[in-house]
Write a structure and sequence with these properties.
This protein is an alpha/beta fold. Helix content is 34%, strand content 23%. A hairpin with a 7-residue loop joins strand 9 and strand 10.
Length: 244
C-alpha cells in the first residue's frame, strides 16, 4: 500500500511523539506505512498526492482566530502551506482527516466560520451522530451516541458551503463534517485515549485551555472514560483508503 501522510503541528517533542504513536496504534499502522511531517519545524514540503493513500492531521496550540499581528512566522507559514495543500486535496477529493487543528484549517479554507463561540475544556463529551452519518462509511456502524475526548479554544461555528454535518455535542454543535466524499474533519481527537490526554493535560496546563490548578481534577475525570468509538473512526478511515 501507499503510505499515509501524518502532519503534526505540536512544538513539544514529547507530545508530538506521543500523538504520532497514537495515530499508529489506533490506526493499526506501522511506521514504514507513514510519512511523518512536523510542520511546526519547517512548514510543509511540496507533496505529490499520487504517492500516498491519505492524509492525517493532528492537533496544535496554533489557532486560526489568533490576530494576524500576534501569529508567529511559523504559524503564518503553516497556514499558507495548508492553503496550497488543501487546494490540491479538494481538487482531487483526496482522503483527508483533520483532527482538532486540522478541523479549523479545513473549515477555514473551505469558507466556514472559525470562532471561539463554542470552546470545550479538556474533557470527555457525548458525541451525537446526525442522520447523514448513518450513510457514511466511517460512521455507519457506530452507535448514535458515544464518548469522545475534546479540548479546544476555537471551533467551526458555521459549516463551509456544501459540507455535510456528521456529529455534534451539547457544548459544540459541529464536531465532525465532510467535504465532497473523502475529506473529513473532527473537532474531537479520534487518535487519543485517557492516557494520552493525561500527558497533554500535564504539558498544556499553562496554555490557556483550562486553569492550571485544575489539571489533576481533569486527569482524574478522563481516567475513567471508555473511549472506544472515536478510535474506530480513525481505524475505518485507514482501512477504507489503504485498500484503494
Amino acid at each position: 500500500m501507499k503510505p499515509f501522510i501524518i502532519i503534526q503541528l505540536r512544538p513539544e517533542d514529547e507530545t508530538s511523539d506521543s500523538e504520532y504513536n497514537c495515530f499508529l496504534t489506533k490506526g493499526n499502522l506501522k511506521p514504514e506505512e507513514t510519512f511523518r511531517i512536523r510542520a511546526e519545524q519547517n512548514g510543509l514540503p511540496d507533496i505529490d498526492l499520487n504517492n500516498y493513500s491519505g492524509i492525517l492531521v493532528g492537533g496544535s496550540p496554533f489557532d486560526i482566530t489568533t490576530p494576524e499581528d500576534e501569529k508567529s512566522a511559523i504559524q503564518k507559514q503553516i497556514e499558507s502551506d495548508f492553503q496550497k495543500l488543501l487546494n490540491k486535496v479538494i481538487e482531487k477529493d483526496f482522503p483527508f482527516l483533520g483532527c482538532c487543528s486540522g478541523n479549523g484549517l479545513l473549515g477555514n479554507h473551505c469558507g466556514g466560520k472559525i470562532s471561539r463561540k463554542y470552546p470545550e475544556p479538556v474533557q470527555a463529551v457525548t458525541l451525537t451522530l446526525t442522520p447523514e452519518a448513518k450513510k457514511d462509511d466511517l460512521l455507519k456502524d457506530l452507535p448514535e451516541n458515544f464518548r469522545g475526548l475534546v479540548g479546544h479554544k476555537e471551533c467551526c461555528e458555521i459549516l463551509p458551503p456544501n459540507a455535510v454535518h456528521l456529529a455534534s455535542s451539547e457544548t459544540c454543535p459541529i464536531q465532525m463534517f465532510k467535504i465532497k466524499n473523502n475529506i473529513y474533519a473532527t473537532q474531537f481527537h479520534p487518535e487519543a485515549d485517557p492516557q494520552e490526554f493525561e500527558l497533554r493535560i500535564n504539558i498544556y496546563k499553562n496554555h490557556g485551555y483550562f486553569p492550571a490548578d485544575q489539571a489533576e481534577e481533569l486527569i482524574n475525570a478522563v481516567k475513567g472514560e471508555q473511549i472506544i468509538y472515536t478510535q474506530k473512526i480513525l481505524e475505518n478511515f485507514i482501512n477504507k483508503y489503504k485498500a484503494q
